[in-house]
Design a protein that fits this description.
By secondary structure, this protein is α/β, with parallel strands linked by helices. It is about 25% helix and about 20% strand. The strands form two sheets. A six-stranded mixed beta sheet has the order 6-7-10-8-9-11, covered by helices on one side.
Length: about 260
């Protein structure tokens, strides 16, 4: 690809948790101006297709853990720089918000190293979208005064002191990338003396018509979820705020939304 004298600009943008209506006005405008849109695997395809101009190049460059066929971060960096140096306006779309558990730092470093101008456009985080559409406020008077966001897999470098903090806090705990290892998560928190009756929710494909909500407690998690596998993306919420779902659930199957599965607790 020939390099133009004029370098393009890159917009690193959060596309929200799934519902195409949850993007920002600014992102909508930039998508309409973009020459190239590079989108992650978890971004709703309708966001790009319904907002892009007719001659825009839309590229799927999805990353997925444990999947050797997905794009490596180095390949994504190369695509971004290649099109920007060709004078193109590039929108790099990421699911949720760009600052939450994404590889935005790698892309920022690459842009700086190549002297490519950029902007960051925030988006609705997966945690905010999932909690809103599941009617589980992340903080609520009498339930939780704070919230913590944690990436979890069995190979995490979380220390014993960190787990003790998670087990004793009254904050809501939101675990990203945890649904495939939900039993290990519940067992680990319980081993550090977290109250067994603490609520636990797994929210699949939040804010979309495929959303499913699974409610249980830490002590019943293994039994209740024994025969279940959760689709990606899924988010896990642990805390007393989970109890609020049943009372305030508003996004239901009759409206084309949640298929609510209430499990024994």
């Amino acid at each position: 690809m020939p390099i133009n004298k004029k370098i393009g600009k890159v917009f690193l943008a959060g596309a929200g948790p799934g519902d195409a209506d949850l993007i920002t006005v600014k992102l909508q405008k930039k998508l309409a101006e973009a020459d190239v849109i590079i989108t992650d695997r978890l971004v709703n395809p309708a966001i790009a297709t319904s907002n892009a101009k007719k001659d825009a190049l839309v590229l799927l460059a999805g990353k997925q853990g444990y999947n050797s066929e997905s794009y490596a971060q180095e390949e994504i960096n190369r695509l971004i720089i290649e099109h920007a140096l060709a004078g193109k306006t590039v929108v790099r779309l990421k699911g949720g918000d760009v600052a939450f558990f994404s590889n935005v730092l790698d892309e920022l470093i690459t842009l700086k190293e190549n002297n490519v101008p950029f902007e960051i456009i925030p988006g609705v985080t997966a945690a905010s979208g999932a909690s809103a559409y599941a009617a589980i406020p992340l903080t609520a008077r009498g339930y939780a005064q704070g919230v913590q966001f944690i990436a979890f897999n069995p190979n995490n470098d979380l220390s014993a002191e960190q787990w003790k903090t998670f087990a004793t806090t009254t904050d809501t705990l939101v675990f990203y990338m945890a649904a495939k290892n939900i039993n290990a998560l519940a067992e680990t928190i319980l081993s550090y003396s977290k109250k067994p009756s603490t609520g636990l929710a797994v929210i699949e494909q939040a804010t979309t018509i495929y959303q499913k909500i699974h409610i249980t407690t830490l002590q019943n998690c293994i039994a209740d979820f024994a025969d279940l596998s959760f689709s990606s993306p899924s988010l896990v919420i642990v805390g007393d705020v989970v109890k609020l779902h049943e009372q305030f659930n508003w996004y239901n199957a009759n409206e084309g939304g949640t298929v609510f599965q209430k499990l024994n607790t």
